[in-house]
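Ticket opened by: R.M.
Priority: normal
Category: complex prediction / small molecule

The reporter submitted a protein together with iron/sulfur cluster and asked that the result be attached to this ticket for the collaborator who will pick it up next week. Submitted input follows.
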Amino acid sequence: MDAGEDGATFRVSDYKTRRSGRWRKGLERLASDGEAHQVPFYAELAGRALGDGWDFAGGELLFLESDDEDRLMDLSPEQWAKVRPSFMRSLTEKVEAIAGGRFPIHPDDGDHGHCSWCGFSTLCRKSHAPSRSRAAKI
Ligand code: SF4
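Result attached by the on-call engineer:
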């Protein structure tokens, strides 16, 4: 997070290794669908921690190993204001599921998908067809 010396605005930057297919939809749509969390979540946390008088000036994902034209994906303050209600609804559903002991799987076993670096893949139910089918409906 970068807080401006003006004491009025802050930005949130999230560094990623490379840009994979999951980012194709763009940060606004992913945040709206509850599929990208870091920038929106930290924007919310930072705004509350900094207190009154601070405004979110935007955030970005920075893909360190990508070519220059693919290195940046941003979320403007206007985009965040627009998608915030749906993001918060999705976040609430997830928190309620966790509190209720429900941990549905969300397999992404393509190239660079999160299953490729998951430490639980040998125990995961993703290879159990009925579990995978149920999870796809959530
Ligand atoms: S292997 Fe299973 S637990 Fe791990 S990321 Fe994939 S779906 Fe989730």
